[in-house]
Amino acid sequence: MGLIIRSSAIHAAGCYTTTAIRKGTRVAEYTGPRLSKQEADSCYEQLPITYLFGLGDGSIVIDGHCMAMFINHSCNPNCETSEVDGRVWITAIRNIAADEEITYDYCLYDGGDDEAVCNCGARKCRGTMYSREEVKRRKALAKKALKKVVGKKRGKRKAGRSAKTPGARSN
Ligand SMILES: [Zn+2]
């Protein structure tokens, strides 16, 4: 098995296999220094692109320094990640042909204002690299924020009307 990095239609660079890979094969390990979430946040707050991989409950992240950090997200990926004893493996979930780009679903979370737009080109692309759960959470948050704004506006209008109405009635 040989992995190479070259330009990708999904994002600047991607990871490709030079040989066919069988379903179930460990393609790469996501390696790099382990940081606490706080350390990672303070290091990378200002950077638009990070290569952080959350372990377990997300309190520890791997600061990617490896071949695997070039693997792009796809909504219809050929690999998945799994955590085994604190190590993260990228494993083929189907047979992959030589020259195919290696991808997995990033299932992003905790992205702040970043929309994390997806350009994977899959037929069922969900348009973002966030996990389905995170997309739901964000939609709920946006709805809440919208309700607050609408609620405030309505409140103001009501107050205006009720101030005028008594005056009109008394005439
Ligand atoms: Zn996509």
Summed up:
The chain is α+β, with helices and mostly antiparallel strands and 171 residues long.
Write down the domain tally: 2
Attached small molecules = zinc ion
The biggest beta sheet is recorded as: 3 strands, antiparallel
Determine the CATH superfamily of the largest domain. Answer: SET domain
The tally of strands reads 10
Mean pLDDT across the residues is 87
Structural class based on helices, strands and sheet pairing: alpha+beta
Predict the CATH topology of the largest domain.
Beta-clip-like
Spatial strand sequence of the major β-sheet: 3-9-8
Give the number of helices.
Answer: 2
Could you estimate the helical fraction of the residues in percent? 25-40%
The percent range for strand residues is 15-25%
